[in-house]
Each structure stands twice: as C-alpha cells, then as structure tokens.
Amino acid sequence: MEALQAFPEAGAIQSDVVITNSIGANEAVRLRCRLVHVPGAGWEQIAAQSLPSGTTVCNVHGHEVPIAEFTLHAILEHCLQLWQYPSRLDVDAWAEAYADRAPHDEAHGKTLAIVGFGHIGQEIARRARACGMHVIAVTRSGRQGLALSEPLAHEFIAVSALDEVLARTQALVVCCPLDDSTRGLSGAHQLALLPAQSLLVNVARAEVVDEQALYEALRDKRLGRAVLDVWYQYPKKGQTPVNPSRWPLHELPNVRATPHISAITPALLDRRYRFMARNIARLQQGQPLLNVICQVP
Amino acid sequence: MEALQAFPEAGAIQSDVVITNSIGANEAVRLRCRLVHVPGAGWEQIAAQSLPSGTTVCNVHGHEVPIAEFTLHAILEHCLQLWQYPSRLDVDAWAEAYADRAPHDEAHGKTLAIVGFGHIGQEIARRARACGMHVIAVTRSGRQGLALSEPLAHEFIAVSALDEVLARTQALVVCCPLDDSTRGLSGAHQLALLPAQSLLVNVARAEVVDEQALYEALRDKRLGRAVLDVWYQYPKKGQTPVNPSRWPLHELPNVRATPHISAITPALLDRRYRFMARNIARLQQGQPLLNVICQVP
User: Residues 213-232, chain A: which have Cβ within 8 Å of B?
Assistant: First the structure.
C-alpha cells in the first residue's frame, strides 16, 4: 500500500499494473501503465485527471463485511453502555453492581439513517434490519441504486432531504465516498437536529463530518456519542506526530476513537488480493476489467 | 420482584394473583391464589410441586430481544477486540496505534452453536444469520420446535450430539432453561472440544456451564474468552457478600463479566408488564391464560 515510495524521483514510471491508493499529480503525469488498481474502495488520493490518456483505474470492495460488523457493534455498544459496569466483578463490585443495575437501551425499534447506500451501507442495513431497526437509506438520488431482490431499507431519501429525517434518527452512520458534494455534509446544523442521545458513527472519511461542529456537539453533549474510525489528520512518516483531529476529540468521554481499523481483517485482505489477481488476469487475457472507476479519456 | 418479602411469616397467604420469581416450598404450601405470574422467563425458583392444587403458574417472555442484542454484541466484540487499542487516541497513541494496526476477526463465516432454541435462541440466530454466520441450533429433540416460515438455523442437532459439532464451533452460546437435563451440560469435556480461540457466552443460568471447568479452561487459555451475564453466586440481602463465582473468574483477563443485565431495558419492562396485565385481565374474564408453564394437578 506504500507502492509510491518505490517510484523513482524523476522520469517515467513504467509498469503494466500499479497497485496503490495514492498518486499525486507529479507522479501521475510520469506514470506509464495500463491499470492503476487501488487496493481498497476509496480513490480520492489518486490524481486521476493527471494520469496519461488510456490509463484505467479500478478499485476493490470486500470491506463492507467488516465495516458493517464494526458499525453494528458500535450501535449495540451505544445501547448496552457496558462501560458503566465495573470491569472486574469481584466481591464488592458484584454486590454493588447487582443492586444498582440500571436499564439500558435496545437497538430494536430505533431509527438508523445510513448516509451512502453502496456496498457498505447495504451490509449495515441488512444487519440492522435483523435487529429490528428502522432503516433510512440516504442516497444521492433518493432511490435504491442497485437492482436488489428486496429493498434493504424501509425508506429511501435523497441527501438533500437529510435534514428532514434527523430529528427522528437515533443512529446516524456515515459511509459515503468523500467528494465535493459530501464534504462537510454533516455540519453544525445537521448535528443540532439529531436527538441529544444519538449516536454518530463515521466509517467513511472524516471530512464528511465537519470537524469543529462535531467536536462542539460532543463537548456540549448535544450529540450523545460518536464512534470514529476515520480521522482528520493521519501520522505521516518523517513528519511531526499529530493528533487525529485539530480539536481535542480525544479528551471527550463520549468519543470512541479507533485507529482506522474497521476493515482490517485477514478475510478482507484475502478477498481483496484474490480480486486484484483476478482483475490482472483479465487484463492479461484482454477481458473487460471489473470495478472500473475511471478510464482516463 | 421481591414480593416474597411481603409474605407473612406464618399462616395462609391469600391473593388472586402473586407476581414473583421465587417461592420456596415453605411459602408455596401456604399460598392460596389462582395465578402465580413469574415476571420473567425462568421459573426454576418456584417450588411449583408444593403449590396447592389448582394453582396456575405463568411466565412471560419479551427478553429475547435485549438478550439477543447483548449476545450479538459479545460476538462482535470478541471479533473486533477493540480493547487492544488505546482508549484515548492522543498524539502519541495515534501514531503508534496507526502503525501497529493488527488484523482482527470477522463474525462472517464463523460457526455459532446455540444451545437452547426457544425465543432467545431464535432471535440470536436471526441476527447472526444476517451477519453471515453459520448457525447450529442445539435442541432437546434435534428439530426446530416451533412452526416457523423459514428455518432460522442452518443445522439442527440434538443436545446429545453437541460434542460432535464443538470442534468446528467458534462461538458457543448457552440460552437454554436450567433443569436436571441441562445442569453442567457444558463441562470440562465440551469446553476442551472447542477450538482455542472460541468464545463462550452464557445468558441462561450459570449452572448450565460447569463452574470449575469453565474457570480452568479460561485460566489455561484453552477457551479464548467468556462473556458471562449469569452467575453461580448472587448477593442476598442481609448475607455476607460473595464473589459471583467460587472460582476467581473475576481475576481472568479473558472474562467479560456483567451483573445479570442483558435483559434489563425499559422496553422489556414495558412489554412484560403489558403482558402480565393482559393475562390478569384474561383471568378476570375467565379466558384461557397465556404462557401457562404449570397447572398444579
């Protein structure tokens, strides 16, 4: 995934296939290859418009399963609030914890809005429905994109109508691609519309949720909790270490912060490498490539 | 739920309906009532055989939803192993955690054996199937008890054949009633058959799993992890505090111990009180009672 480090400093970069999730404009113009295969789904760091004419860019899915599991876990954890119980149930803790048991919540019957209803959103919906949640799919068009045998959401709304459903949303999951139309999609106004006990889960890209608005809503407890696996600042080799956010999100007790791990499973890597190998074989055999996201004109 | 404390010390106890989950033999023989309504599902603490002839005992479900959510959370948590990440993702933790990310597991594709396939087991199965798990239902007969439109498990086996499936089981969930046939059902032999990374979840009654065998399997890491919500010893008012187990399960890092909370949600209480009110109305109107578990001959 760090293939760019192997790129020469100057001159043409020649290969049949380049597997990478990041190509800057400087590298892109020098690249001579038939296929750039992103080893994941997000390709916002590929300067596709600077690639030479004829280059094909493909991506690969397979991460929808672990990301949906991560998201469902976040929703159930928010309901169960297990952190309120002692981690060690010894003789003293036991008597007290048993006497003081407080009711927790159920996911069952709650409303879940899923922003982005591609592979990930649909897998989240499948699991949430089995838990008895009411699922609202928020898509660009307000319609279910893929032809499925059964609708996976109870409601489909266009992203332009998002504000109208937030007041009845107990869990808002962000799993759409990051682009100009989705950057800051969930801002101060949207977060203010959510009920105070709501949960926000971001497994997409951090910037879909406005950074300052998120921090302030959580700090002021206008938003119940956030489970964040994607961040505004990432560590980069040879650079000064950074916090995951410019705002001290890490100081807030109602934030569960994970270091971009939701999709990292051996099964995912296995699915992805198999897929890329299959696609490279197709390239070799002159068959149409799968998951083409861009063909430079 | 502490109705027995209101019982007189001696003499007959007269009422139309008694709501309680515990009647000892001494109280039972003095009870003159038409209906004993257990406000939950388990009625192993009702000395039914000592109740006067003609008494009806009913129980109430509705706890299958929160218990299934608790169980699914336990399974996903076991896969995600979020405890391996820093709880506070500040500047130092962030760089280290991001660099050191290790793959975690998926529930998808794993095998789940559910011992007891009543209301709770079925709700667990419904959710686990949506997560892509392979579900084995372990029942008394080896068949699905209720007439359902679709089988909720991929395999049905009799409890007498449990040993045969344990070696391919990654998660074993115990949610059967406690009686003479299930006490110690999961003993040293069964726990030894499970793969070393397996998860055991007990949301039934502690004694279905042999106490010493469970402790030793976890201590020796022959069993990966246990999520235990039910216990071998409970605090009792006016008595010396006790540990939840006679064995120091609370000292083990691979035990997640919760103080019998899986079912305690406002929605559950609401469902249960509505059900009991409806059953009492039926008693008053001479209609057949629902959920009759015992009619003393």
Answer: 231
Structure tokens at B263: 């079912």
> Cβ of A260 under 8 Å from any chain B Cβ?
yes
Contacts of A99 in chain B (CB under 8 A): 235
Interface contact A69-B130, CB threshold 8 A: no
Q: What is the pLDDT of residues A190-241, one digit of tens each?
A: 999 999 999 999 999 999 999 999 999 999 999 999 999 999 999 998 899 9
The pLDDT, as a whole number, for residue B1 is 36
**Range 89-118 of B in CB contact (< 8 A) with A:** 89-95, 97-99, 101-109
> Looking at this predicted complex, what is its ipTM?
0.86
Q: Where are the domains of chain B?
A: 3-62+265-295, 64-82+104-257
Distance from CA of B226 to the nearest CA of A (A): 13
Cβ distance A85 to B267 less than 8 Å, yes or no, reads no
Summarize pLDDT for B245-282 with one digit per residue, the tens: 999 999 999 999 999 999 999 999 899 999 999 999 99
Q: How crowded is residue B126: how many other Cβ atoms within 10 Å of its Cβ?
A: 20
- In this predicted model, what pLDDT tens digit does every residue of A139-159 receive, in sequence order? 998 887 665 667 899 999 999
Question: Closest partner residue to B265 among A92, A105, A260, by Cβ?
Answer: A105
pLDDT tens column, B80-124: 999 999 989 999 999 999 999 989 999 999 999 999 999 999 999
CATH classification of B64-82+104-257 is 3.40.50.720, yes or no? Answer: yes
| Residue A126 sits at the chain B interface (C-beta within 8 Å) | yes
Interface membership of B235 toward A (CB under 8 Å): yes
In the CATH scheme, what is the code of domain A3-62+266-295?
A: 3.40.50.720
Does A268 sit within 8 Å of B104, measured CB to CB?
no
Q: Quick one: pLDDT at residue A148? A: 62
Of A92, A132, A267, the CB nearest to B108: A267
Which of A181, A121, A112 has the alpha carbon at shortest distance from A146? A121
Count Cβ atoms below 10 Å from residue B26 Cβ, excluding itself.
11
Give one DSSP letter per residue of A239-297, joined into a string.
S----SSSS-GGG-TTEEE--S-TT--HHHHHHHHHHHHHHHHHHHTTPPPSSEEEE--
* Closest CA–CA distance from residue B197 to any residue of chain A (Å): 15
Nearest of B197, B183, B176, B184 to residue B124 by alpha carbon: B176
Range with the poorest average pLDDT among A4-18, A57-71, B166-180, B254-268: A4-18
- Which B residues, 10 through 69, put their C-beta within 8 Å of a C-beta on chain A? 65-66, 69
pLDDT in tens, B183-242: 999 999 999 999 999 999 999 999 999 999 999 999 999 999 999 999 999 999 889 999
Sheet strands (E) in B162-212 = 171-174, 199-202
Q: Does B130 touch chain A (CB under 8 A)?
A: yes
DSSP H helical ranges for A131-229 = 162-166, 188-193, 211-219
What homologous superfamily is domain B3-62+265-295 in, according to CATH? NAD(P)-binding Rossmann-like Domain (3.40.50.720)
Radius of gyration of chain B, Cα coordinates, nearest whole angstrom: 21
A64-257 CATH pick, 2.60.40.10, 3.40.50.720, 3.40.50.2000, 3.40.190.10: 3.40.50.720
